[in-house]
Amino acid sequence: MKAFSFVLSILCAVIVAGCGSGLEGTYASDQNGFAVASYTFKSNGKVISKLLSMEQELDYERDGKEIKLSSPAAPGVSMVMTIIDENTISGPMGIRLNKVK
Q: Choosing a second label site near 62 at 20 to 30 A (CA), which of 9, 40, 77, 79?
């Protein structure tokens, strides 16, 4: 019975870990050495969006290769980004964002 409980607890931990977004770090556009836009993803479903000198915190959800960004200030409105690979995201208007940290 103890072995069953141990296996069950490990299985639950793996399932919970798999439910995370799996997306963390900062992704930024590089326009001749100048980061025009950057997005810092946190494991808690929040992302800090910086565009030129403006910064805002948004919510995000990952669904496969899609990342859906939304703001509590604009219910029902969202922006979808696409994960190209583990180091690259296709952002709004086709902007390519590369992982920086």
A: 9
- Summarize pLDDT for 9-21 with one digit per residue, the tens: 332 333 333 344 5
Element (H, E) at 88: strand 88-90
54-99: pLDDT as tens digits: 999 999 999 999 999 999 888 888 999 999 999 999 988 888 999 9
| 3 state DSSP class of 17 | helix
Q: Which two tokens stand for residue 19?
A: 């439910």
Q: Residue 10 is which amino acid?
A: I
Q: How far apart are CA 31 and CA 51, in angstroms?
A: 13
